Amino acid sequence: xxxxxxxxxxxxxxxxxxxxxxxxxxxxxxxxxxxxxxxxxxxxxxxxxxxxxxxxxxxxxxxxxxxxxxxxxxxxxxxxxxxxxxxxxxxxxxxxxxxxxxxxxxxxxxxxxxxxxxxxxxxxxxxxxxxxxxxxxxxxxxxxxxxxxxxxxxxxxxxxxxxxxxxxxxxxxxxxxxxxxxxxxxxxxxxxxxxxxxxxxxxxxxxxxxxxxxxxxxxxxxxxxxxxxxxxxxxxxxxxxxxxxxxxxxxxxxxxxxxxxxxxxxxxxxxxxxxxxxxxxxxxxxxxxxxxxxxxxxxxxxxxxxxxxxxxxxxxxxxxxxxxxxxxxxxx
Length: 332
Ligand SMILES: Cc1cc2nc3c(=O)[nH]c(=O)nc-3n(C[C@H](O)[C@H](O)[C@H](O)COP(=O)(O)OP(=O)(O)OC[C@H]3O[C@@H](n4cnc5c(N)ncnc54)[C@H](O)[C@@H]3O)c2cc1C
Hints:
Blueprint: E1 5-11, H1 15-26, E2 31-34, H2 60-73, E3 77-79, E4 86-89, E5 95-99, E6 102-111, E7 115-117, E8 135-136, H3 139-142, E9 150-154, H4 158-167, E10 173-177, H5 187-198, E11 204-207, E12 210-216, E13 223-228, E14 234-238, E15 241-244, E16 248-250, E17 281-283, H6 295-314, H7 323-326
Parallel strand pairs: 1-2, 1-6, 2-3, 6-17, 8-15, 9-10, 9-15, 10-11
Antiparallel strand pairs: 4-5, 5-6, 7-16, 12-13, 13-14
The protein binds flavin-adenine dinucleotide.
C-alpha cells in the first residue's frame, strides 16, 4: 500500500491533468496521473494548434510529448491504461482512488477526465474527423483553416450560433443547419445571427428544419447530405467543411454519487477555487461546470487546482471557508 501513496492524485492525463501535474510535482509533491488511455486527451487528435500562447503552430502529439516529458522531469508518475472507477474519502481524510483492482491513496485529488464532443453519428463523420479533412467540433480552434472556403455548421444552441458567427470571419460562406424552425438560444445571439443572414450578399444562411444525414467526399469533405425533417426531401449540399456543434458530453459517469454533478453531468465546483462537493477533491478542465473548453483554459485550470491544493495542505480548514474568505495569497 505504501507504494501507492501520493500527495496528489490526478484523474486524467489531458491538458488539465498535465497542467496540474507540472505545478504539483515542481512543488515537490509526490504526484501521479491516472490515465485511462494514453496521456494527451482530446488535443492529441489534432494536427494543428495555433492558439497556444508562445507557440506559433504545433501538432497535438508534439505538444503532448513535450508536456509529458516536462512533468516527468519533475517527478510526476504517469500510469497509462489506468481507468479510475471509484473514489472514497476515509474517516481520516485520505482519498482512496480505485482503478479496478488497483488502489491509490492520496491527500488530494484533481478530477480532470475531460469531455467528449457529442457526435452526429452519421456516415463520413469519423472518416473526415480532423480539420485537415474537413470535420471539426471547434470553430474557435479550426475556423482560420477554412479561410475563403464554404462550411456547414450544425446545431441551434448558443455554442452553435457563436461558433457559426466566428466561422463567418474566415469562411466565404457559412450555412447553419438547424433541425427546428426557430432557435432556443439567447435572444441577443439569435438577433445577431438573423441580422447577418439579412445582409445583402451576406455570407451566412440558415437551413431550418434540416438535419445532416451524411458527410461525403473523396479524401476530404466535399458535401453534406441534408434532409428536411418536415418534407423528407434530401439533397447533396456542397461544402469544404462540416462543423458540428451539438453539445459536449463530460466523461463523468464514474463520478455519479461521488461528487455533485449538474443535470448534464458537469462537475459542480466553486469556480474560483475549483473545490468539488467532496473535501480534498478538486476539478480542472472541460469536465467542470463553466468550462470554456479550450487547451489553454484546461491547462490553466490544472495550474489553479494545484495552487489551491497548497492552501488545503497548509490548512485543511481552508476547505470549509466560504469563497470570499478562501482568498488567494499567492506570489513567487
Ligand atoms: C480535434 C480537436 C481539436 C482541438 N483543437 C484545439 C485547439 O486548436 N485549441 C484549443 O484551445 N483547444 C482545442 N481543442 C479542445 C481541447 O483539446 C480541450 O479543451 C482540452 O483537451 C481539454 O482538456 P482536459 O484535460 O480538460 O480534457 P481532455 O483533453 O478530454 O482529457 C481528459 C483525459 O482524461 C482521461 N480520462 C477520462 N476518464 C477517465 C477515467 N475515468 N480515469 C482516468 N482517465 C480518464 C481521458 O482519456 C483523457 O485523456 C480541440 C479538441 C479536439 C477534439
